[in-house]
Amino acid sequence: MEEVQVPEEQVGQADEEEVGEIAVAFYESRKGGKKIFLDGFDYYYHHTDNNGKEHYYCSGKSNHKCRGKLIWVEARNELHLRVGHVSHKKRDRVDLEIEMFKRGIYRTVEDYKCVKNRNLLSTRLAGLSAAAKTRLDEKKIHSIQTHMSREKRTLNIFDPESFEEISPVLLREVIDGNGERIFKEIINDPSPMVIFGTPSNLEILRHCAIWSIDATFKLVPIPWVFKQMLVIAGYCRGRFLPLVYVLMSRRTVEDYVRVFESIPMSEDVKVVLVDFEQALINSLKQMIENMQLNIKIKGCRFHFSKALLKRIKKMGFLQAYLGRGESQKPELAEFTRYMGRVWIGRIRNRNWLRPRYEHSLWNVQKLILAGLPSTNNSIESQHKAFKDSLTRSHPSFVHFLAQLMREHAIVDYRLELPEKHHEDHRYYDTVNSFYDYWELMFFFDDLMEFD
C-alpha cells in the first residue's frame, strides 16, 4: 500500500500541495461533492466507513472499469492508495487548475455581490499560472462572467418559506442566457401555483405538433406548499424539449384547466401525450372542446405497459411463471375482467359498458406507424437528470431556480442541434403486422384462450 502524507489545510487557500513528485488537491465537483486529485487522476467521494475513513473511487470506474481507490484519514492527515489503476488517460493539471479557479470564484460571488464581475475576475486571475491564463481564452472568460451574473441574480432572491413570501418582482429578475425572464406568472385561484417559461419557449410550444405532459413530485421546493412539478414539453426538431414548468399545490381538473388557460393551445397542436391521470385527461378534453380544436389525447405506451405488468404481478402470474415456467396455466378470468373494466370494455345484461379509458387513448398504433414518439420516456429521463443535478429531493427555492436557469440553457443548446429522426423499429415491426384494431383483439383472445 502506498501512503501519502498530506499537510494541514490552509484557510483561505486552495487545499493543494506538492508531496514529493505527487500532486494532491482537494476540491468540489460541479454538484458540490468532494473530490481528490492525485498524480493525474480524479477520485470522487463514495462513503465513510465506521472508522471515520473516507473512501474515494477513481472517476474512470464507470467508463474504464478502473479499480483505483483512495482512503482519506482526516484525523491523521493520511491518504492511502489502495488499488492500482488500469490504463486510461490522466487528468491535465492545467485543466484542474482552471476548474478549481471557476469553483472558487463561483463560491465567492455571494461575499462580493456589490463588486463588478470584471474587477473580481481580474483579481482572481492574478493567482493563476501562465499556462492556465493562456488556456482561458476570451470565450471562456465571457462564459464565467455570465455564470457569475446568474449566481448574483439568484442570490438576490429571498428564499421563501410559504407561498405568500414568493415575490413576483424578484422572480422577474431571474433570466436565462438569452436575457429572457423564465418566470411567467403566479396564480392564486383555484389553488397556489407558479408557472415558469420564457416568451420564446412558450411560442415554440404553441407551434409544436406533439406535446408531452408529465409530472414529478420529488423536485418541488417548499413541499408543504407545492405537491408536484408539471412539465410540458414540445416535440421540436425530432426531440422533446421541456418548455414550461408549473409548480402546483393540487391536482384537480380545475387546477389543470387554469394552467392550460395560461398556456393556450393553437391549431398546430395535433397530439398530447399524457400518463393516465384522470384529472389531467378530463381537463384536456374540456379545453379542447371549448377551443374547438382537433387534438388527439394519447396515453403513454410505457405507462400502459407498466399498469399491465403491475396488475400481473399483483395477481401472482409473474411469480408463478418464474417458479414453474411455461407449464404453468394461470387462471386468467380475473385478468380478463380487469382488462374489460379498465381498458377494453365489457357486456353486462346485453348492455355495453364503456371502459375506464377509451380505446383511442391507449391505442398508439398510428403514432408508431408514423414514426412518432408514443411514450414520455425522454421526459422521465430529463426528470432524473434534473434531480441528479439538484443532489437532493425538495431543494430550496433559490437552488431550484438556479437549476431551472441551467435547464433553460440546455434547451437553447438543443435547439441548435441537428434534427433527430425518431423511429422505434421494434414496435413498428410488431404493430405493422396487425392491420387494424380487431385483428389485434383477436390476437389477445387467442393468447388468453378466451371465447
UniProtKB/TrEMBL annotation:
It holds the Pfam family FLYWCH. One of its GO terms (molecular function) is zinc ion binding. Residues 210-306 form the MULE transposase domain. Residues 26-81 form the FLYWCH-type domain. InterPro entries: MULE_transposase_dom, Znf_FLYWCH. Signal peptide: none annotated. This is MULE transposase domain-containing protein. It comes from Acrobeloides nanus. The lineage of its organism: Eukaryota, Metazoa, Ecdysozoa, Nematoda, Chromadorea.
